[in-house]
Amino acid sequence: MTGLAQLAAAPQGVVLAAEDLSMFGTDPWWLVAVKAVFCFAFLMLTVLFSIVWERKVVAWMQLRIGPNRHGPWGMLQSLADGMKLMLKEDVIVKRADKVVYVLAPVIAAIPAFMAIAVIPFGPAGNEVSIFGHRTAMQLTDLPIAMLYILAVASVGIYGIVLAGWSSGSTYPLLGGLRSCAQMISYEIAMGAAFASVFLYSGSMSTSKIVEAQEDRWFIILLPVSFIIYVVTMVGETNRAPFDMPESEGDLVGGFNTEYSSIKFAMFMLAEYVNMVTVSAVSVTLFLGGWRAPYPVSTFWEGANHGWWPMLWFVLKVQLLLFFFIWLRGTLPRVRYDQLMKLGWKVLIPVSVVWLMLVATVRALRNEGYDFSKIVLYVAGAVIAILLISFVVDIFRDRKAKEAEAAAGPEPAFDPMAGGFPVPPLPGQTLPPVPRRRSRSERELVVSGGPDTHSDESASDGKEADGV
């Protein structure tokens, strides 16, 4: 109940108000260009480092050496991989829709870079000086910045679907549709996790959400929302164990099977940039954004001023990137039905129930109720819902048993009824297979063991009968 207690103890008034974002949009054009180039360079350098780091960490987990040839300690391996992909032969499939085939990687890569525009690297005030101009450590901000992030993330799905469709092949098409269904399914739970943050912070602006975490980070106040978002961001980026579009066993390479050279590299670039973007969003929403960790901020007053906030932000992003790598080196790939069941039957119901719980607590707090009454009302509602569901399950099971008794025993399942073997459906069982002797039993019979006594007694009986 710690999260509910913090919610109830929060100040009143969570109605979305007009934010004061006047500090944005006043920079000269050349400073805006410098910030845009910095955002692009930050993503590219982080991607290059993440690729090497992933291969190093996974090699360490699997007791291997990892890349150690290009550059000191193999740190230039990413550049070598990029040069290799650019120098490979660029093949265009004969049956492909050439225009869409070429545009699909671009559509997948560009939206991945756009979300970083509203991510704050530091305080919203004029904290730093760039060539003599005081400016905020953020490219821009919007009153609906989080909706902008959701919108540009959704556009990236079109690149994957169009890549699979335009290739003119069956397997890429299946991979594209599979990825589309996966990303749409997990975006619903992600949106519900965002809504809990909006209710608590009272804003959709990224800078205001970070300001609302001055006292406590939202990972403490909204732990369920953080867990849901962490799971959904792994599914959104198609990373292991949710890398269904790249299932080597059944779809070869998924939606990018027919791509090569620089177009294939753009898909990989979009995946890693999306990793950095969702990690930055997670840091902004739940981990205090650019704010220094708790022990540092208590004894150092300047930790959240100047250029230092960028250091804390980058360290938090790298920590979440390590979490991505850790999952890939630890967990096996799940089946597609398990992936969709987790998204639709677990994450979405849990996120909606948690959102209703947060909204109830905030509404009761705004009405002036104290925490004891809020706990009483919420606990009573939860117990009533559990009792109702228990009674419904009892009567539903009773009706199902009565229907089974009236129908009589089901006919035995015949897997060869249609002329070819058919796997059993849930609830059906295969007929018992005649038992075959194991290898040890067969060797025992040949060597004249105990199993041969019956044969010897039978032969003795036949001799006694004069046969």
UniProtKB/TrEMBL annotation:
The chain crosses the membrane at residues 33-53, 99-122, 142-165, 186-205, 217-235, 272-290, 310-330, 342-362, 374-395. Residues 452-467 have a biased composition (Basic and acidic residues). One of its GO terms (molecular function) is NADH dehydrogenase activity. Coiled coil: none annotated. Its main location: membrane. NDH-1 is composed of 14 different subunits. Subunits NuoA, H, J, K, L, M, N constitute the membrane sector of the complex. Belongs to the complex I subunit 1 family. NDH-1 shuttles electrons from NADH, via FMN and iron-sulfur (Fe-S) centers, to quinones in the respiratory chain. The immediate electron acceptor for the enzyme in this species is believed to be ubiquinone. Couples the redox reaction to proton translocation (for every two electrons transferred, four hydrogen ions are translocated across the cytoplasmic membrane), and thus conserves the redox energy in a proton gradient. This subunit may bind ubiquinone. This is NADH-quinone oxidoreductase subunit H.
